[in-house]
Amino acid sequence: MNIPTKNKTVRQSRAERSAGNGNAVCRRRKEEKMIKIAVLGYGTVGSGVVEVIEKNKELVNKKAGEELEVTYILDLLDFPDDPYGDRVVHDFDRILADDQVKIICETMGGVGKAYEFTAKALEAGKSVCTSNKELVAAHGPELIRLAHTHNCNYLFEASVGGGIPIIRPLNYSLTAERIQAITGILNGTTNYILSKMEYEGADYDTVLKEAQEKGYAERNPEADVEGYDACRKIAILSSLMTGKNVDYRKIYTEGITGVGPRDFEYAKKLDMSIKLLAVSKEAGEKTLAMVSPFLIDSAHPLHMVNGVFNAVFVRGNMLGDSMYYGRGAGKLPTASAVVSDVIDCARHIGKVIMCFWDQEEAELLDIDSVRRRFFFRVKSQALDTVREVFGNDILEVQLDGVPEECGIVTSVMSEADFAECHKKISDAAIGRRLRMEAVE
Amino acid sequence: MNIPTKNKTVRQSRAERSAGNGNAVCRRRKEEKMIKIAVLGYGTVGSGVVEVIEKNKELVNKKAGEELEVTYILDLLDFPDDPYGDRVVHDFDRILADDQVKIICETMGGVGKAYEFTAKALEAGKSVCTSNKELVAAHGPELIRLAHTHNCNYLFEASVGGGIPIIRPLNYSLTAERIQAITGILNGTTNYILSKMEYEGADYDTVLKEAQEKGYAERNPEADVEGYDACRKIAILSSLMTGKNVDYRKIYTEGITGVGPRDFEYAKKLDMSIKLLAVSKEAGEKTLAMVSPFLIDSAHPLHMVNGVFNAVFVRGNMLGDSMYYGRGAGKLPTASAVVSDVIDCARHIGKVIMCFWDQEEAELLDIDSVRRRFFFRVKSQALDTVREVFGNDILEVQLDGVPEECGIVTSVMSEADFAECHKKISDAAIGRRLRMEAVE
After folding, report:
1. Dist CA A39 CA A253 (whole Å)
2. Which of A294, A424, B161, B259 fits a disulfide with A437 by CB distance 3.0 to 4.6 angstroms?
3. Would you call B318 and A303 a contact, using CB atoms and an 8 Å cutoff?
4. Within 10 Å of residue B23's Cβ, how many Cβ atoms?
5. Any CB–CB contact under 8 A between B335 and chain A?
6. Taking CB atoms and an 8 Å cutoff, what residues of chain B touch A64?
7. What is the mean pLDDT of residues B21-44?
8. How far apart are CA B210 and CA B222, in angstroms?
């Protein structure tokens, strides 16, 4: 199970030296009081994990109740100039074979190797803490069950909302609540792009390019801008909300492409903003889960969540509304969440931390029946037809100096009815339609 | 240890019947799988606790891992028409003597009896969950230690921020963070009053009277409007931030009296709002803790926290800023937080839940040395003197149609220097001065 090594620096690593030196009794005593940790993947988040444990060492050890030591770092590369370079190994089996490694941070990303290593670690009774939303969304309940079978834990605070504590509040704090709805701004890249468009009037392509230059957006931005990232995150939150498994592949997902500066002009006139929302709502026995850009009212607490910040808005049947706000991405915030999981695992060595996420599939509501208001733009000459098709309850919004078009806010109608009506006026429609999220 | 009974209905309560009937083997088996709970004080929060446990029964039991039953309700009164009336007892010793009672909810308030009962419960190994911020602020570290000595827990999620999960996020989630600052809107009554003044231009007395009529403010509103309530809450948060004990009696506290509609006109002109903030900040080896009305910028996330909502803004050295928002008071939100503590206790019977709040006293910074901007109003004819005293870096704010006075924003200066300068122009000053909290 060697992973290919790009840079085969052949020197004895600290981990290797330690394995071959069994004589130092005093050192061994110290190690017995120490929890060894392995980090899989020494990229942005992985190196952040090492940095957080080092920088806040005293405090982290105090909170964990034991001294934590990053003993192994698994990566394809060597890092000879890194202060932790001597801990780098290339063979996962080395980590698996070390009984003193109790906690593994999986910060590799992806599903292939990450899945394989996670499953093997859990089978060996080693807890795994991850920032890997793809893997959690795809195999969460299976890995949680595997962990519990082997008296260890699979924790994933960093997989949603970066540094915002949200998984633990749902699992440990809102325990007396029936969660009725979760609405999140869960992707920093798209929120940055939309905020820039809103406050600077810039167009989508310009802002995306700037975001790529600043490192806020990937060179291939599809996972962010098409909503796939937010989709996986809301699948995780939905699953915790329902206690069943919400399959991310079945969540209706629309991205932000096609949202333009003109849309923000209408939004402003309506005292609203446009945000990519990931939504999960109780709908009788079913669950409504979707990702889409929405117009939201300025009175909604999510309205003020700008730039790279994320937030999760939760409605419970006793508490009512609460919101969790913070940095949804970034090296140290995400790493801090991983380390909070490490501390939780350290406090619970050999004990299972409760997490209700069954493998039973949650039934999702077909969005066709969901009722709300919609917004769209039309050529002004088609207004009579629009009134005929959508009825007289529509709100017509006229921008100053733009007589050739008009914004329309529909009355409350189902997705299916809207689609049918909108098709009838499609020749006169300009741009894309938007959904509206009201303050209830 | 009988507490006086106002209404001595003499009838055998369910609890009494149960005590005298040891024959039903099948029932006893069931009880062995059940955790008995006692609620002390059947007022707003206490009856809310019973309601939450009843309404969300299935879910609460699932999360607790055991069936929870409210077996005793301690109160001065009887509640013959209440569905739980048969569980009411008047003698705390009855509860203490029942070994099956593992968890006690202290929702009495105050320090006298509540302190006595809590200490006795913990000494008997019964965990206590409380909404009583007075008692937690006054005896927190002592009671936590007492609990841990007896392998049980003293939890107080509901004592700060009502239903907002904040104690648990600080203790369990932000464990990898060195918390550098906590800024909270922690009192719903004052926030309601200030929001009403801001959005309706109403004056303080009118709004206070309305708040009293709606039940948002007490008949004697001193504890809220003078900041005493917020002071106890920030003492608790400060203590968790520092790990030491922050004595609430030593926290500099100013209330909202004297803030008038005119102040809000200036605030609006400055694109700011006025909020009663409870602040705790790292200041070298010391801690700055204070409660005071502040002008805050519209870009600050706390700016949008209106009405009875509360929020806690936390700055950590890795995560940066995060915020926790929700209902800071109210029967069900507060009760939901108490029940989340009950569930936590149920999951940890016989085990200590870590909480770092030592009895060692935290050293507080004398606020005289704290530097910030200030805002005050003066008669226009005194402007020359003001410029002389405060220098040329001041910002002068003129309201339309109010030529007789002027608002002044000072440069950054210490509290002591400001006080000295402000004294020099006191004859020309109008109203009270306000502190300014900047977005850093």
Report:
1. 33
2. A294
3. no
4. 6
5. yes
6. 175
7. 72
8. 16
Instruction: Tell me if B65 and A172 make a contact (CB, 8 A cut-off).
Output: no
pLDDT at B215: 83
Q: Would residue B423 show up in a list of annotated catalytic residues for this protein?
A: no
| A55 strand-pairing partners | none
Is A287:A239 a contact under the CB 8 Å cutoff? Answer: no
The two structure tokens encoding residue A239: 């699953």
d(Cα A349, Cα A351) in Å, to the nearest integer?
5
- Residues contacting A217, CB < 8 A, separation 6+: A189, A192, A193, A208, A211, A224, A225
The answer, for A62 touching chain B at a CB cutoff of 8 Å, is yes
- Could you tell me which residues come within 8 angstroms of residue A190 by beta carbon, excluding any fewer than 6 positions away? A224, A225, A227, A230, A255, A256, A276
In chain B, whose CA is at the least distance from the CA of A60? B176
Identity of residue A206: T
Name the CATH superfamily, with its identifier, for domain B176-327: Dihydrodipicolinate Reductase; domain 2 (3.30.360.10)
A336 to B316: CB separation less than 8 angstroms, yes or no: yes
Residue B362 is classified by DSSP as P
Lookup result for tokens 């309560």: B13
- The answer, as to whether pTM is greater than 0.80, is yes
At B221, give phi and psi (nearest 5°). Answer: -85, 10
- Assigned fold of B368-437: Alpha-Beta Plaits (3.30.70)
- Answer whether A435's CB lies under 8 Å from A288's CB: no
- How is the beta sheet containing A34-40 ordered, strand by strand? A88-89, A67-74, A34-40, A101-106, A127-130, A154-155
Task: Give the Cα-Cα-Cα angle A239, A244, A250 (nearest 5 degrees).
Answer: 65
User: Which residue, chain included where needed, has tokens 């226009």?
Assistant: B380
Shortest distance, CA A111 to any CA of chain B (angstroms): 26
Alpha-carbon gap, residue A338 to A332, rounded angstroms:
10
Say whether pLDDT at B18 is over 60: no
Higher per-residue confidence, B65 vs A13: B65
Choose which CATH entry (3.30.70.980, 3.40.1000.20, 3.30.70.120, 1.10.10.10) describes domain A370-437.
3.30.70.120
How many CA atoms, within 13 angstroms, populate the side-chain half-sphere of residue B321? 17
- Taken in order B283, B286, B287, B288, the sign of the CA dihedral is negative
Contact with chain A for residue B356, Cβ under 8 A: yes
pLDDT above 60 (res B24): no
The ranges assigned to domains in chain B are: 14-159, 176-327, 368-437
A36, A102, A196, A233: the active-site residue: A233
**What value does the mean pLDDT take over residues B299-310?**
94
- For B14-159, CATH number? 3.40.50.720
